[in-house]
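Lecture 7 notes. Example A: sequence first, then its structure tokens.
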Amino acid sequence: MPDEEDAENTPRDVVVCQARVVTDTAEEMDALLDHGSFELAGRGPRPLRDGGFVAEIIGTEDELEGIVAAGYRIEIRRPEEIRDAAEMVSRTNRYADPGAIPTGLGEKE
């Protein structure tokens, strides 16, 4: 894995990030996904209670900044944030003690 210094020197059109993008209508979401060169992460777009639509996408920093510039609501998760979150997930078997109530995240053997 590249270290932080390598990541800082990587061009923005190469760094891949994950983001959650929100549109006001299904038509806006369709147009965004049809004209973008990014990938969906997980399931496809889904409706929100306020009538908007949300989708998890993966793209380069430049592609995602273009979505921001177009005026869409977007929350970008950069690689270091994703890596930090993954390290917080426990790799222990939280079901090992049959009398205990499992809590948190973990792996079942």
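Example B, a different protein, same format:
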Amino acid sequence: MRDYPRFVYCKPSADSVSRGLKYDYVQVCNDAEYDARIAAGYADSAADIDAPAAIVEVPPDDAPVTRAELDQKARELGLKFDGRTTDRKLSAMIADKLAVPDVVDEAADHQSGV
């Protein structure tokens, strides 16, 4: 059970920032007001406002294909290869099996300026 009245907090507005505040707050007087503000993005404590969100690093879409990715795809396709098989050859084998353009050759040509 919550005690009322109480405050809920959110990130500061531009006006609040100019006045040096680290957060804005609103007083709520009942469960309905509290639930509406929480649903709108307010937090129960000011400390929750400063808590950073989890950072997930996502590689860019144009990142070159890694050897591990080639190995995994080749195994999925049932291709025979070993450590002596070059990335370019393995990529070509995968492309032939899937009937798609050779992704490593395109990346190598792009990097070499061709």
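Note on Example B: The chain has two domains: 6-50, 67-112. The chain has a mean pLDDT of 80.
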